[in-house]
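Extended Data, panel c. Modelled sequence:
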Amino acid sequence: MKDQQQEFARLFITFEGGEGTGKTTQIAMLSEYLRQQNADLLVTREPGGCHEAEALRNIFQHRHDLKWEPISRALIVTAARAEHVIKVINPALQDNKTILCDRFFDSTLAYQGYGMGVGLDVLKAIHKDALDNIEPDVTFILDMDVKKAMDRASRRGEADAIEAMDISFHEKLRMGYQAIAKENPKRVYMINADDTAEAVHDKVVIALNDYMDTLT
């Protein structure tokens, strides 16, 4: 029987979902679980994860005077992702680390594609050319009723530009994530996030162990 550190070596895990679905909480809880299993862990996020990508994140999320076109948003997050992958993710995988990442390319498909109308084929072509189609080993999409999720998000304080978009946009996001899960059944686990944080965490751990079982 392999020890747990070996079991969780060189594993790229991402969390996805709309606003207010609890990604930050679940990443923190799974990171604690993995550390208890002696995983050599890296926790990171997108856009961001390295100095250059964080600079782009700051422009993208906090310069509310700048009105980006959807394709421009996609290119900005792809530029940040390229920096992140080259400088952080690929080196971590080469060092056999387990990576927990808050968002990745599925967010681009959901937000700029399904939500804002950029062609999915265009986004996939950009990802292929810029990043050689790198994808996570396993992805957890946190899913729940949009109105409930937005109510959760509103409790955090002032809404950012994305959270402030109308409900129809967030419904498109949810449908987009559901389509991504259907298209990638071996990689993506759709997790019902309309529950306590502890109950959702239990579902994530069960799904992760289910994925690990497919590797043996």
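Residues 4-214 form a domain with the Rossmann fold fold (CATH 3.40.50.300). This feature is highlighted in the accompanying rendering.
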